[in-house]
Amino acid sequence: NILVTADGQPKLLDFGIAALVADDGASAGTTRTxxxxxxxxxxxxxxxxxxxxxxxxxxxxLGVLLYVVLTGRHPYPLDGLAPLExxxxxxxxxxxxxxxxxxxxxxxxxAGDLDAVVGKALQKAAVDRYASVAELAADLRAWRGGHPVxxxxxxxxxxxxxxxxxxxxxxxxxxAVGLALVGGGVTTAWQARxxxxxxxxxxxxxxxxxxxxxxxxxDVHGALRNVPGATEARRMxxxxxxxxxxxxxxxxxxxxxxxxxxxxxYEQLANVQGGxxxxxxxxxxxxxxxxxxxxxxxxxxHLDDPTDADILGLAIDIHFDRAAMLNLLDDxxxxxxxxxxxxxxxxxxxxxxxxxxxxxxxxxxYSDVGRLLADNERFADAEGAYxxxxxxxxxxxxxxxxxxxxxxHAFALKRLGAVLMRRMALDxxxxxxxxxxxxxEETIRRDDRPQTRFDITFTMSDLALVxxxxxxxxxxxxxxxxxxxIREAAWESDQKDTRALSGVCxxxxxxxxxANARHDYPAAVTAYRxxxxxxxxxxxMTGPLPGRIAELSWARLRLAEASLNVAGQMGRxxxxxxxxxxVASTSRKDGKPSVPAGSEPGYLELYDxxxxxxxxx
Length: 617
Known about the structure:
By secondary structure, the protein is an all-alpha fold. The chain is built from 27 helices and 2 strands. Strands 1-2 form a two-stranded antiparallel ribbon. The radius of gyration is 31 Å and the shape is globular. The protein starts with a strand and ends with a helix.
């Protein structure tokens, strides 16, 4: 809708005139009138989807126009496409950078800043574009004047190149004077003063950028942690923050404070990407990559200063997360990582004064050691580690107990209760869970967040399991349903949170077990089917990880068994068909052969029993 006059002046036409001057009223570029008026070739994704039009829509259209002006081509080849194909191209296809599509003689001049400006204006999501047309114009003016543009990464090297580019004569003159002074052996306070002023400016700018990135990494991310549905936003924030800090680190050299922030930042990013212990997006491979970077930073810091207890505490946390991630991925490197984690915890306990902060770190370290050992089926060793952790937490004075230490104390008690329940020490197990429940309730009183409310469901679930071991099915079911309501609410509020979904799966399995024990096989089928459906969705989100496959296979076998039981009660052949299909979708190698605590059969026992049953033996 822009006409350029003979003397080069652009004129904006209204939609009606544009429609009259169009060459072909049926082409993709025709202006549409009616409820939504726009030119498809220049329309934004939100316009094509019929969503609300904002200033960001104008920015997008101007970005398309800028692309055409710079390259002579449209960012999307739309000629001859049907409307749905046009919509798909604009909404889903990423356009090539202008420098790649322009004539050869122009590509070098377009590469870099102009690619970045156009790319920002053409972002699919409106929030990722320039906030206003004025900001887009300001970046174009900055480019013309040789100044940095906001769309490009703000590294010190980039800003220096822009400075030299717009001050070539002055820089050349200063260089010539400098050479003359050096050549003549002349020194001057003026030269030192100019250099110092520039260094001060650069250092001040560096610190401002670093402080802003740290604020995003810790303050803003900390606030988002409590916002339902913010898991993806947290990942984007952390990803961009740590990438930016990484760039600063390359410029800063050996800056311990910056390296520490990066180690903690990569650990946080890993937890959001695929951590086992917080809301996450179910991408453990990406999480492991981030943890590898965190380990590199924190190990270097610990090597430089082995006396720093805070650095050692951070190293313990990061190595634990990495060991847990390797375990989830069934990576044999987990054993070496567990050994590293244990040695770091022992180092903190033996070499540092036992202040409350150190006691808390050591106690959490031993609790984490117990979890890693239990995951590797070293249950006797795990029980000893949990006992040690609980004893250390018990040494803290009331005034020294922080909210996080209370929550971690409760977690250690729960894990100890689980190991005790495994060897059927049910009275002591229940006692530990009751103690954990008191601490969980205290945590919620002091810090009522979705995360703390979610944490109490583990205590409820395991207490219910103790009741189930005693065959008190009514008590067990009531507590499992209370826990399920909390977890389903967490999942509904953020359906990218794989931790919440995994917790929901577990509880549907527990309810199926309860119904099965009561011989209420139709109820067992319903519960197990809910579990299978959700575990299939979980694998669709995380990929076919060995642990996830084992859990799904267990659920399918339990559903098959319940289906056969219903068929036996009611003579429904269809149930037998379903059971046959479910068993066929698993294999003997899918599940772990160990037998869980209680009277349930092991995976291999159940698989073989169902196979014989379906064969009529």
